[in-house]
Design a protein that fits this description.
This protein is mostly helical. It contains 7 helices and no strands. α1 packs across α4. It starts with 6 loop residues before the first helix and ends with a helix.
Length: 191
């Protein structure tokens, strides 16, 4: 006849499973209940972008910088919208953290923006499943491929114009549009 396990033994054996369950539940709740500062993230980012370049660059007549792909605004699934937002934020972080940014940009505002981007990126990475499950297609309709192409075109635009202050100003204005579109994308999908 088997001796029943003591309550302490059952607690020790069940504690790791309970801890994993509680961690998963807390993570899920943290991802679905967004802090109030998430609502202000795009607008604070817009202000920081403005603060980065108080003085306008001299007018230049470069070709138009790449335009934000409007097809991304047609995403209707919340997790897909978050995955697209994550990819956009990662590219923005990479672009704006470049050592070739203009010397006249205010570094403090730029650092605050980069810190804010990094925080938001980490939050989204923590909350999202693997992107491959969100966007299984590899064709032209895959939003992540569209985002990658858009930012590749931005990098090409900067290289073509030798990372000039004027080219960077075009990119900064395009980043402004990205934050506005991100706000619309993630807000519209949730309502």
């Amino acid at each position: 006849m088997a001796v029943p396990a003591s309550p302490q033994h059952r607690l020790r054996c069940g504690a790791p499973a309970l801890l994993l369950l509680l961690t998963a539940l807390a993570t899920s709740l943290a991802c679905h209940h967004r802090p109030e500062r998430d609502a202000t993230f795009p607008w604070r980012s817009l202000q920081l972008l403005q603060d980065m370049a108080h003085s306008p660059t001299p007018p230049c007549h470069y070709q138009q910088a790449p335009l934000f792909p409007h097809t991304l605004l047609h995403i209707t699934h919340p997790q897909q919208a978050d995955a697209a937002a994550l990819r956009i934020l990662q590219h923005l972080f990479h672009t704006l953290s470049s050592p070739s940014t203009p010397q006249h940009w205010h570094n403090e505002a730029r650092q605050q923006l980069l810190n804010s981007l990094q925080h938001r990126i980490q939050h989204l990475q923590h909350c999202l499943p693997d992107n491959a499950t969100l966007f299984p297609g590899q064709g032209p309709r895959n939003p992540l491929l569209t985002i990658n192409k858009y930012f590749r075109n931005i990098q090409d635009f900067l290289r073509t114009h030798n990372h000039s202050a004027c080219a960077w100003d075009h990119v900064r204005l395009e980043a402004r549009l990205c934050f506005q579109r991100l706000h619309n994308l993630t807000r519209t999908v949730r309502h």
